[in-house]
What we know:
- About 30% of the residues lie in helices and about 25% in strands.
- It has helices at about 40-45, 50-55, 115-120, 125-135, 150-155, 160-165, 170-175, 190-200, 225-230, 245-260, 260-265, 285-320, 400-405, 420-425, 430-435, 445-450, 460-470; strands spanning about 10-15, 15-20, 30-35, 65-75, 80-85, 95, 105-115, 210-220, 235-240, 280, 330-335, 335-345, 350-355, 360, 380-385, 390-395, 405-410, 440-445, 475-485.
- The longest helix is centred in the middle third of the chain and has 36 residues, at about 285-320.
Amino acid sequence: xxxxxxxxxxxxxxxxxxxxxxxxxxxxxxxxxxxxxxxxxxxxxxxxxxxxxxxxxxxxxxxxxxxxxxxxxxxxxxxxxxxxxxxxxxxxxxxxxxxxxxxxxxxxxxxxxxxxxxxxxxxxxxxxxxxxxxxxxxxxxxxxxxxxxxxxxxxxxxxxxxxxxxxxxxxxxxxxxxxxxxxxxxxxxxxxxxxxxxxxxxxxxxxxxxxxxxxxxxxxxxxxxxxxxxxxxxxxxxxxxxxxxxxxxxxxxxxxxxxxxxxxxxxxxxxxxxxxxxxxxxxxxxxxxxxxxxxxxxxxxxxxxxxxxxxxxxxxxxxxxxxxxxxxxxxxxxxxxxxxxxxxxxxxxxxxxxxxxxxxxxxxxxxxxxxxxxxxxxxxxxxxxxxxxxxxxxxxxxxxxxxxxxxxxxxxxxxxxxxxxxxxxxxxxxxxxxxxxxxxxxxxxxxxxxxxxxxxxxxxxxxxxxxxxxxxxxxxxxxxxxxxxxx
Length: 487
């Protein structure tokens, strides 16, 4: 992670909004806009993420502005927390760096009918059972192994096919963003190497910042929305964060190699080769989109199988079926993806490709893509924080459609690099520190917890406050972790 501070312009243009004017650098087609308060903007200045916001503004066909959420930090090409919409009718491009290596990394929230009093006495047994049963760790496979032909079927059909095999029900599908299926997926464009990496990784957590947490609903801030989402104080929930594993990584890696010459071929000038891209309607652009959609559908299957295994663990520990425990999916959101959506630009509705790189869709009430049960209140937006403090459930607001292509933040955002976090943890037992805070943690290694310790992240309460004040999404419920498993 580059350590040089950003020294370019940042003009305050709102209570929680800062502008990098397009006059900053020749070639910027639009302004850069960063959502942050006075405290968070200081961390934004500490690395080159703001410079990446300016870089993204060079992309052909970009609409309105190059956007960044308050959890922004440096990433590959695009900043993490970055949002850009491109118009195919104006030569718009698709960029794998605007999606990321972990295609359709995302998070899902599962509610239960259990309370703290039910779970506290058995929390160590529960976390140990989850750690035994749910595969974690770098490159680790799981109990579900799929042949290349079955993998292609999964990537074409998404979790609905898992339903035919007994691992999903209709309510799970209904409460998954896009119902777990990006149309137009082309599994035949996914390489043999990617298929090999994915054959036993559907239903595995992975490593890094991925986790499965047991949470308590700590406080309710929007009772009507909480009621619609089935959330109440002292309730036990499960939060699952993972993506497309090695398969998605390989799809991105393959695409970056295949697109290497595309900017020169299509006369696209870029300030950073990590923004490599191609016109959406070009053969190269269509090839990436077909494979990216397939990997996204795989990721939804992965989180579905992870949830299914969590249900099995709860059923074993509490001696009741997951249906009796009412382990119901509240919602599943993607935060590394590109999707064709209709948005208002200059007073006119038109289809644009919205790149969300570490950013979450947050559609408001009334949007036709929402499940019927949430259409009256808005989309649940799930924002994981860190394993020591909190996570949040928000609800999408109309301001997101006016200003950010229906998008808000995706998490707390890193404050320290993994190297810096490990250095800070030298001589410490993060698991013991967490246990003293009331959080039971299990991980494959000391390093896994050290890199992800709470101090490595911004305070998610501050991040959420910004999108709340900006009118992008409203606070519904604050969650507090009591148990976590990690790779």
